[in-house]
Amino acid sequence: MRINELQSGMVLSCDLKTSDGRMLLPRGLELTDRHIQMLVRAGIEDVEVDAPKAELNADMVRALEEYVRDFYLYVNPDHAPMLELFRISLDRTAVAVASGWNLPSEEERRAQTVEHMDDIFLKDMGTPADIVKHETELESFPDVYFRIREVLDSPNVSADRLAKVVSTDVGLSAKLLKLVNSPFYGFTSSIDSISRAVALVGGKELSTLALGISTISYFKDIPPELINMEQFWRHSISCGVFARLLAEKQNGLQPERLFIAGLLHDVGRLIMFKKIPYASREAMLFARENSIPLHEAEREVIGFDHTDVSRHLLAEWKFPQGLSEIINYHHDPMAYPNPLEPAIVNVADNIANAVSIAEGGMYVVPGMAEGAWELMGTGVGFLREAISAYDEQIDQIQHAFF
């Protein structure tokens, strides 16, 4: 379509790049007047957009409202940010359906059977510490993780030293460069070396990112019939993106640190998938059938939740204590002496769950911890701004990791 025919609300059907390959706008982005003005200034003449959306009849609108409302049964309906998230979820789901997406059936939203799998521990016979001990005794952690930890623990982080450590791991280097060149940072020129990335992003910041990325590589062999790992990591990355956007609104916080906390907020759940897959599946089904948050279902079915596991796991890995506590307290941030950072991940987790509803999300929005939103001093208008920024970033950031 010619640039002068574009209208606000149209959706890009493919990535839009400059002649030298630099990303301007990602596929799936809903154009605003600001985007169109930017394209005009950039000299773009033709743009590919999706076909016009179908009109929704009254029955479909009612079905959409019922579908989305099911995800918000656990939250306080009078809480202004949750009410705004509900409206956003409804708008996004309506757009998805009008664009050809079908609401998933109840069967499609269920976990597949894992009757053939044996749990290492049965309920009341194993503790989170037992599960972690069994895991860490059998598996070795990536060596590059400990070398990055050594750099992080140095009194003065050396940029040259960090670049050398990261550069020894080709896969890690490639992922970091993809991330640094993505809309996550929005640098105008391409960054083609780790040393350059360290200079622009900062040694401490990049080492935190490297720490999180190397942690992801540890998790392999999660039963595919138990969970769709692409969806799991998309939710995790989404939580990281929103945590970073929220952190940028605060003074004195390191956004990269909050991104990694969001990225790894469910890390304990991955160990549960590996060691107690049957019980984990039962918890997922219980959460769906009773419309309660998954961590509440874990406590009911298993006797503990994934943050109980992450508390032992991150200690065993000698993860930075401050980063560990953000992850361990993200469902109960106000119980932590300095609640702002875990509160950010708590809110980010809710936003990530809200946007996933229009993508086939399985679990209810857990609800923000009391006081978490207010702690940040952010107006509800920020939610739509953050989700717009997320839409511009998420696909490329996910590609950087996977």
Automatic annotation (TrEMBL):
InterPro entries from the UniProt entry: HD/PDEase_dom, HDOD, RNase_Y/CdgJ
Top-rank taxon: Bacteria
Residue span(s) of domain HDOD: 138-333
Signal peptide: none
CDD domains per record: HDc
PROSITE patterns hit by this protein: HDOD (PS51833)
Protein's name in the database: HDOD domain-containing protein
Organism: Pseudodesulfovibrio senegalensis
